[in-house]
C-alpha cells in the first residue's frame, strides 16, 4: 500500500519515502529510537469497521473532557491523561487511582476484539530487545489508551512536543533517552486532520512557549518536514520529543488513540502510558 499524503508536504514525503518504515518490527523500532527514520506508518493496522464503531463510542463517551491548556483545550479526550495532572498532587493521585479501571474500560469499548493499543503493547513487548511494560510512577501504574476527539473544524494541536520529564519528577521518568508516541487513527475526515512532523526539537524559547500554552504560532515555525493525512485504521509512531502538530479536521470528528513510549536504550524495557 502506498503512503497517503496530502497538503504542502506531500512532495517532501514522496521524496523521502526512506524516512518511513511500514511495519512495527525490532529493526524499525530501533531505527526510530535512533532517529534514523521519521516514523513507522502502518496502513490498515486496525480493522476500519471496528475503528469506526469505537470512534462513535469515544465521541459519545461520558468521560469525554478537554485538555487543560489554553491552546489544547479545543481537543477532547476520554479519561485523564498524565499531562493533565499538571503537577497537582490530588490530580496525580486520582490519575493513578483510576488508571487500571480506565485501561479496562477502554479495552471493553473494543470487545470482543483486541483493542489496537493492546495490540501495540504486545508488539512492543515482542519486538524491543528488552521488552516493554506499563509505566509506573512512584511505583503506581499509569493509564494507557487515551482516546482523543478532535471536533469538526475547531480542534487543533499547534506545533508542540511532549516530554515526560516536564510532567513529573518521579524517579522512573529519569534517564529517558527518547520518547515516542503511537497513534492509532479510528476516524479521520477526508479533508484536514493532517499530522505535521518536524525533524527537530524545539529551541529553548519555543519550549518555554509550549510549556506555557502547549503550542507555537505556526507563523513562527518553518514548514514541516512531513505532512501525513492518516486513514482510519492506520498506526503512526514518531518521536514526541520533536515538533509535531495536527491541523483542523474539516466536516467531521477526527478520533485517535494514543500511547507515549519512553525509551532508555535497547537494554531497558520500553514503558508506555497516556
Ligand atoms: O493525533 C495525532 O496525529 C498526533 C497528536 C499528538 O500531538 C501526539 O500524539 O502527541
Ligand atoms: Fe503531541
Automatic annotation (TrEMBL):
Keyword Transmembrane helix set for record: no
GO MF, any single term: metal ion binding
PROSITE patterns in the cross-refs: FE2OG_OXY
Sorted UniProt keywords: Iron, Metal-binding, Oxidoreductase
Domain Fe2OG dioxygenase: 140-263
InterPro entries: Oxoglu/Fe-dep_dioxygenase_dom, WelO5-like
Domain of life: Bacteria
Any single Pfam family the record assigns to this protein: WelO5
Family under the similarity heading: Belongs to the iron/ascorbate-dependent oxidoreductase family.
Protein name: Fe2OG dioxygenase domain-containing protein
Protein source organism: Streptomyces paromomycinus
Amino acid at each position: 500500500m502506498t503512503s497517503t499524503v496530502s497538503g504542502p508536504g506531500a512532495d517532501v514525503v514522496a521524496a523521502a519515502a526512506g524516512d518511513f518504515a511500514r511495519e512495527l518490527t525490532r529493526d524499525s523500532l530501533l531505527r526510530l529510537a535512533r532517529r534514523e527514520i521519521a516514523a513507522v506508518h502502518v496502513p490498515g493496522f486496525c480493522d476500519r469497521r471496528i475503528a469506526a464503531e469505537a470512534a462513535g463510542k469515544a465521541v459519545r463517551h461520558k468521560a469525554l473532557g478537554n485538555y487543560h491548556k489554553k491552546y489544547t483545550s479545543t481537543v477532547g479526550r476520554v479519561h485523564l491523561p498524565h499531562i493533565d495532572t499538571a503537577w497537582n498532587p490530588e490530580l496525580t493521585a486520582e490519575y493513578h487511582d483510576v488508571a487500571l479501571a480506565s485501561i479496562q474500560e477502554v479495552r471493553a469499548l473494543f470487545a470482543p476484539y483486541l483493542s489496537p493499543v493492546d495490540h501495540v503493547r504486545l508488539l512492543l513487548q515482542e519486538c524491543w530487545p528488552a521488552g516493554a511494560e506499563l509505566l509506573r510512577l512512584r511505583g503506581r501504574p499509569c493509564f494507557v489508551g487515551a482516546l482523543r476527539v478532535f471536533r469538526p473544524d475547531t480542534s487543533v494541536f499547534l506545533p508542540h512536543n511532549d516530554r515526560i520529564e516536564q510532567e513529573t519528577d518521579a524517579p522512573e521518568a529519569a534517564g529517558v533517552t527518547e520518547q515516542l508516541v503511537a497513534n492509532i487513527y479510528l476516524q479521520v475526515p477526508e479533508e484536514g486532520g493532517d499530522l505535521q512532523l518536524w525533524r527537530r526539537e524545539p529551541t529553548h524559547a519555543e519550549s518555554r512557549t509550549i510549556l506555557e500554552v502547549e503550542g507555537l504560532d505556526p507563523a513562527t515555525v518553518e514548514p514541516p518536514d512531513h505532512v501525513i493525512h492518516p486513514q482510519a485504521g492506520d498506526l503512526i509512531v514518531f518521536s514526541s520529543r520533536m515538533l509535531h502538530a495536527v491541523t483542523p479536521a474539516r466536516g467531521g470528528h477526527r478520533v485517535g488513540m494514543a500511547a507515549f513510549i519512553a525509551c532508555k536504550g535497547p537494554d531497558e524495557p520500553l514503558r508506555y502510558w497516556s
